[in-house]
Task: structure prediction
Amino acid sequence: MLALLEPCCLLPHLVDGPHLGCAMLIAACRERGIKTTLIKGQTRYLKDMFVDDSEELWNLIRGLKEDDLKKMGKIGNYKKSIQRKGLKQFRSELKGLYQRVALDKNPRHYYDAKLRSRFNCLHEIFVNLELYYLAEFDHAGLEIIDRYISEIIRSNPRYIGFSLENYFDPLSRTIRKRIKELTGVPIIVGGAQTPFIDFKKIDKIFEEEYFDYLIVGAGDYALPSLIEALEDGRDPKGIMNVFYKKGGRVIDNDLGIIDDLDKLPYPDYSQFDLDLYFAPKRILPLQTARGCSWNKCAFCSHCRIYQDKYRTFSIGKVVETIKHLQNNYKCSHFVFHDEELPPGRAKKISDALLNNNVKNISIFSYARLTSGYHSNVLLGDISKAGFSTINWGLESGSQRVLDSINKGTKIKTMSQILKKSSKNGITNLCFIFFGFPGETKKEAQQTVEFLKKHAAYIDGVFGGIFALDSNSQIGKCPEKWGVDVKKNGSYVAKSGMSFLEAEVFYSELTKKLNLNSIKISSDKLLYIPSGFNARMLHFLNSSYHLLSNTSLLERLKEKKLDTIFPIILGEIKKKHNRTVFYPVKANETVIINQFFPSDRMIFDSLKEKIFVLSDGTLSIGNIVLAICKSFKKRDEKGDIYKKCINFFQKIFLKKLGIGFSKSWQL
Result:
């Protein structure tokens, strides 16, 4: 009855798991007896681009003229490179690239940032090409669009729903326009971006965006209620959060929130391609709360999505949801899609998980570095319960800037939390930004010094430049922060760095300290090419048993080779009857504290076997045992055992300076 389109995320590095909003809506409709068919978006779109419609891409690229190339930047150089290739080679390369990035679940591929960066670069080129084509030639004849249209029509829906992940993007708009032209099926739109619509232009938006009904904010009750009303021939008047057209004008109902979140069903992921997302293992999102318990940060407007109100699922419901998802979808990795997790609530959830014996899970969450998390006992408990990665909103290393932001955090407390969190085995990811109005260059440098001082405890840093959001506190009262907002949306701060100065500071900083990064070796931050987000780093870390230098050293001293899972990055090629190993350069990988040969070397058959098996799925102990079992003679096994151990010892000795007088034991 309802065809619900999963939004196509136009940034491939965000395609790491299914869309929570769609899963919640499917569950809500199912509970009310409304049949819902998911039209896959994220996974399907990338497969179409790199496999099924690559011939169309080839023709579009080759058909670009000089005037087109001048408008499109990167694609000019790419067009020159494919002119030397035939269609067959082009399609083969794209299919192979998609296979390695999306389908192969080999850890080695996930850590090869050079491979993923190439995929992301091509994806950006292809998306820009399609959007350019849509802008220049409207909807004429793109196969990738026609595929969606055909699939929607084949589902024979009575209603079609769109989730606005990217506000009103051209791709989604084009599909809605075609649907309008080909069918008379009512179109419903909703999603997290709807509260930010300019309601002064709502009549024009209805007309230009090709939809019949708009759900603003929570759709868990609004969507099934709207469909039930339409099925009964009733006017949607009085249905919370629903906007619709009648008599040539837009009718709006009251906006509301769902107070009792426990009454909502578990998210339904049964129709998603769970193993086609760009993650090493299945990742499922869920919410434990809606809104932000703090809701005071001057730069943020996310709480408008929840009408600036904070409501929580009960602790029991959170545990039940995790157990349901774990059992029904064979999933152990979860993302809490909460704005932030307060320390008191983190303790209650952790206690409940431990008391209910929920095992073998890893959780990614967002949090503030606020008092409460400085408790060593709390951090130890949440680590035991499965919280393996926390993305902390560090924002700045200047107390004055933090106070101006209304962050509610103290430098001393932040320092304590990061140290204790790291000691308890939690991966610390930190977000920072520069250029908040009034921030001086000296204060920005204080952030840099904070990072340097705490580099041993920070596993990843993600940075950016302040962007003024008209819906944030500072956007609503810019004069309070000494900001003059121009008509075109730009702004000028009366004190501190200008936007351009902040941009230059950040650009120079990334060259020196390499932010947007993840730690490879102790006390050193190295660059990660674009294409990775915090959640991906979390699942790489939790999925493949990655260790800090301290943990690794302890395990080596204890000779626990069954707990160390090596990943040797690089590739082997046959050259003149020899097997040559080519390592991945350190700045072309995203490994966390993993160690591998850094020089090109000749591999004999034994080293080749070790390389093949050292992909993060087997421990050193199991690798050595597997290789030894392939040799029948007892004396042969002993010799092979020593060679295998020596190989790993050389790697660790070179990278960590670790040496042992006694042989390692399995």
Q: What stands out?
A: The longest helix spans residues 113-137. The CA atoms of residues 228 and 234 lie 8 Å apart.
